[in-house]
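Exercise 3.2. Students should predict the tertiary structure of the chain below and write it as structure tokens, then compare their answer with the key that follows.

Predict this chain's 3D structure.
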Amino acid sequence: MECVLPTHYFHVVFTLPHEIGALALRNRKMIFTLLFSAAAHTLLELGRDERRLGAQLGVTTVLHTWTRDLRFHPHVHCIVTGGGLAPHGDRWISSRQKYLFPVRVLSDLFRGKFLDGLAGAYARGELDLGGACATLATPEAFNLLKDTLYRKNWVVYAKRPFAGPEQVFKYLGRYTHRVGISNHRLVSLDEHGVCFRTKNGKQVTVAPAEFIRRFLLHVLPNGFVKIRHYGLLASGNVRTKLAAARRHLEVNDKSAPASPPQPTWKDRLLALTGIDLLTCPHCGGQMVSHTIDRHLSRAAPLSPMVLDSS
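Answer key:
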């Protein structure tokens, strides 16, 4: 929670078009790194634009590579601060509550940054063009693919904004470390097939070998980092710019009307697990806290229980 600022946040998803699928499978580390960079720097560049915000944002990016039926679908989820630090670091500039940047502008800039990086990697001979990518070995074929991709509208999805820092905390704790499929989605399996849930109550059954193949599509390169931070949240800015942003936001909070109390760890436990530590598990009564006089506790032995139900 040290890097979560007391401000509103946005959730933006950047997705690669399916035409890049074969290249991404063959060049996972490079394509994933380029995806991270293009998405994050699209947000940071628009944030610095004085016509839009004129401030440095904080961005956390999380890589996912799957659809609900385990097909290969590289995309990054971006958690973006609802505002940023002014260029001179002297104030916090807040964005609108329900709107960050136009989706079409995000899409066009993201597409340009990614394809520029991809063309540079091709020119330097850094792409593995074997296997299914062999047809791209000639400059003519690669340029044809690039022209096709430039003509497409790339998918950038602005999801519903986070309700506040507490929701960001829950997202980071529960959503960022998911794998392609969890155990509760498995319905049945035998030597003939594996059945698992997808979405909207639907299920899919695939042969065991196909299930294993799809699952292994989402194993990341050895040592690859799937969560990365940019802007105010970059490691070099945490103790300087991020700290300054927090100070400005805390000053603004003090001058604003008092906000509702933040949930305690007991409240979070209840929300996540349904366990209420203030309710007796035996009788269902409300737990009552008793204060024990320090001097009395020395004079006579007491029961180890300090809570009872009534």
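Discussion points: The longest helix spans residues 28-48. The radius of gyration is 25 Å.
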